[in-house]
Amino acid sequence: MQEIIEQLLILQDRDRKILRVTQELAHIGPDRDNLRGRAAATQSQLEAAKLRVKQIETERKQRDLEIEAKKSQIEKYLNQQLLTRKNEEYKALTHEIEMAKEVIFKIEDAEIILMEQAEAAQKEVARATTEAAAAKKLLDDQIGLLDQREANLKQDFAKLIGERGQLASVVDESTRNRYERIFKSKGENVVVGIEHSSCGGCHMKLPAQILVSCQAQAEIVTCPSCGRILYFKRDMDLKAAD
């Protein structure tokens, strides 16, 4: 019976390693997506900053066109003043000229604000460019490492699965099925030792008869509380803890 326990312990070791590799593989995809998401986010910020610069420049050009239009109006009104001989019409044209000049002053004030906004937007583009470049470099570096890690883990996984198949084949079907049921329900601790007269899995105190049966090693013994397979070695302490 000791031989069966040893076989199960080796099988359990492989299953634990398979579980670790599977968990690592499961994290690689999300880690890769996270890196790509961060790089995409910084690139989006950069594109938004560049778009803001273009919008400000477009608005400034529109303001320049408005100023030129008002200057043309002023020139037109001045020419009309030269031709008119009516005092009231002359005064009306003067008023229109003053109104046009006032509009020009307001547009020029708005352009000053736009210039300040353009300067801030350019700084934001510079910052976003640096951040996007750093994120891109990190992505390229880390993606390469993750891809290599994934390839190595897949190789390890394939090797472990092969070893696991060989190890499982030497365990009788009934014992193997019992082991696999427990592994599925209890996790990686299926075959556990005895310590201080307690189960190494659920840590419940074991009846004296269970301890005697484990020492005898004549049959597979399971914990009456959790169902895990128990084993005993001479260096284990059967004395109950104080």
Description:
- The chain has 242 residues and is mainly α.
- The protein folds into 2 domains: 22-169, Orthogonal Bundle (Helix Hairpins); 173-231, no CATH class.
- 78% of the residues lie in helices and 5% in strands.
- The protein contains 4 helices and 4 strands, in the order H-H-H-E-E-H-E-E.
- It has helices spanning 2-83, 87-169, 173-186, 208-216, and strands at residues 191-195, 198-199, 221-222, 229-231.
- A 4-stranded mixed beta sheet has the order 2-1-4-3.
- Strand 1 (191-195) and strand 2 (198-199) form a beta hairpin.
- It starts with a helix and ends in an 11-residue tail after the last strand.
- The mean pLDDT is 93.
Mean pLDDT: 93
Residue stretches low in confidence (pLDDT < 50, at least 5 long) are none
Q: Helical region count?
A: 4
Helix and strand sequence: HHHEEHEE
- The gyration radius over C-alpha positions equals 41 Å
Biggest pleated-sheet summary? 4 strands, mixed
Q: What structural class is derived from the secondary structure elements?
A: mainly alpha
Share of β-strand residues: under 5%
